[in-house]
Structures are given as structure tokens and as C-alpha cells.
């Protein structure tokens, strides 16, 4: 039954079935992840996007909040060939439109060829193709969401205490530009206290924490719009070890004089091959990004994507920087690169002291 429409920026309108009603708009992207739909749907990096799953059946092992990466569903809408009732009910409760029974292969091929694009969705009783088109026409380009961090960051500093059995003793200031919960957990379980700070914190706010490492999180939107975070990175570069994941890598590179650019359709999935240029070792990684570092500035590109050679890891001994474009914390996806967190904590003085004891 057709009771839903998706209008694409290329002028087409596709018919679908409503699984959760509503009207909305966003940047149409796809993930090839075949597992981890709860984690993906709660990843704050998907804010202002409409997420299409290329894997055809989404929801076949239920919905459990233990697997959530934040406290709500983050994309503006979700699309699959088929959603189970569990997922459809969850999305409906959250007020997130969901549609299925459309040819998602066609949608994914379109995005691969034409790039991530504006779309509009109208789902539910009495909607028309014109409703979907009106939503699409009101959709802003991602770079116009200049204050996107405000919707996904903590509003007050929040402390997540270390697991007392963790191997290290360190304090991390995590600039929360839309952080996934697993990043905090990965640091806590190794023994680091994590002070989560608002995305627009000042250098003085970071100073107040007196951290061993400044960590810039993942997050949605165009990295060039995170002016406050770039200023914080600049204030501490060379004085404090710096680490970043995804948006964090982009912000750190840009702050230190490099640059970023938008990719055609980005990398979203759980089997992106990344090669470490120093060891020639390739690991499978989880990814979710639409921008990339095009110029690393003073940082060295230490890891690249095997498919398209884009920068996956940046480091600098001089500045004390280690960043990743992919998601070492996994969730969803492979655990092959969890040692990133050990490498980050090895940069902190207190780790060195503990190790020397
Ligand atoms: N997962 C992320 O941190 C994404 C970073 C950035 N918003 C991008 O799309 O490239």
C-alpha cells in the first residue's frame, strides 16, 4: 500500500509504505552496515540526515536500549527495504518517520552516483507527493546547519568516572560535538575519568578540568562550522596531547592549518578497509562520515582508506596528536582497532607514571 513518499533533489518522487508517520527532510545518506541498527540509529553523527539501510531487513534481533549510543534516535528519518515491527514501533514512539517497501537498491545507486542529496519524506494518512516535495525544497545543505553541535552536545559539563580496575589513571577532557556513548565507555573501562564538555567550551573551561588529554569527539555536520572547538584545539596544541575521532580528526586537522572537503557519498558501514602505512597492516573499520581531511596541515597521514586513499589516521609526535577518521569504538562493527584508546592514553603523563611504577 502506498501511503508514503520520498522526494529527491533530482526531481524524482518514490512511493513507499509508512512504518512510522510524519513529515520531515534531511540529507539522504546510506549505510552498508548489515548489523548494529540500534547503534546507528542512535549515533548523533546522523543528525539532520535521512538514513537508508542498504541491508534489506532491519530489526531481526529486536530493540534493546543497552545498545543505544545516545538517549534518542538521531537521524530525521529512516528507510529500509523492510523494517520489523519492533523497529517500526520504536521509531514511531520516538516520532521519527520510517518508510519501507521501496527499492532501496535504486536509492543507494542514486546517492552513489549523484552524491548525498536533499530529500523530503511524507508518511501517513492523506499525504501526497507534493507534501514530500515541499519538505525536500525546504531542506538546507548540511553546511548551512552552522550550529548543529547545539542539538547533540551536553549543555553542562558531566563527569563519567573511570572503572577502578582500569589499567591507567588519567583524566580526559572530551569536547562533546555529538559523542557516541561507546567512546566514553572505552576510555572509562581503561581507567580514565572522562569530563564531557559542551561543544562550545572555551579554553578556560578545558583548563578548569586540567586534563591529561584533550579529546575531540565525533559529531554531525560540516567540521568547518565548529569554530569554538577549533579555537580550543589551537589553544592547547603542543601543550596537551590531542586525540580525535571522525569529526574530531577533521576539527583538529582544520584547526592546525589543514583543510576538509565534502565527499560525494561518504563512508558509512562496518567493513571499510584501512591500511596503516607504517606496518602495511589492513584492518576492517566502522565508518560514518561525509567529509574528509583533504590537507592534513602539519600532521602526518599514517593510515589510509584502501578503497579511495582518503586520510584515515593522522599523527604528530611534535604536537602530540593521534586521530582517526573511522570509529575505533565500533558499536556497531569490528573491534579490530580498539587499541587506538590504549595509544591515546599512552600519551598522557599519568599513564607513563603508572607504567613506570
Ligand atoms: N561520525 C562523524 O563524526 C562524522 C563527521 C562529519 N559530520 C562528517 O560527516 O564527515
Order of helices and strands: EEEHEEEEHEHEHEEHEHEHEHEEEEEHH
Number of domains: 2
Q: Give the low-confidence spans.
A: 350-357
CATH top-level class of the largest domain = Alpha Beta
What Rg is obtained from the alpha carbons, in whole angstroms?
Answer: 20 Å
**Averaging pLDDT over every residue, what do you get?**
96
Strand order of the largest sheet: 10-12-11-13-14-19-18-17-15-16
The name of the CATH architecture of the largest domain is 3-Layer(aba) Sandwich
Q: How much helicity do the residues have?
A: 10-25%
From the helix content, strand content and strand pairing, which structural class follows?
alpha/beta
Ligand kinds? glutamine
Kindly report the CATH topology of the largest domain.
Rossmann fold
The overall strand count is: 19
Biggest sheet details = 10 strands, mixed
Oligomer: single chain
Q: How widely separated are the two ends?
A: 68 Å
Can you describe what's shown?
- By secondary structure, the protein is α/β, with parallel strands linked by helices.
- It has two domains: 4-140, Carbamoyl-phosphate synthase small subunit, N-terminal domain (Glucose Oxidase, domain 1), CATH 3.50.30; 148-356, Rossmann fold, CATH 3.40.50.
- The protein has ten helices and 19 strands.
- It has a ten-stranded mixed beta sheet, sandwiched between helices. A seven-stranded mixed barrel has the order 1-2-8-6-4-3-9.
- A hairpin with a 5-residue loop joins strand 17 (300-305) and strand 18.
- The longest helix has 11 residues, at 104-114.
- The radius of gyration is 20 Å and the shape is globular.
- The site of glutamine (GLN) has 11 residues, from strand 16.
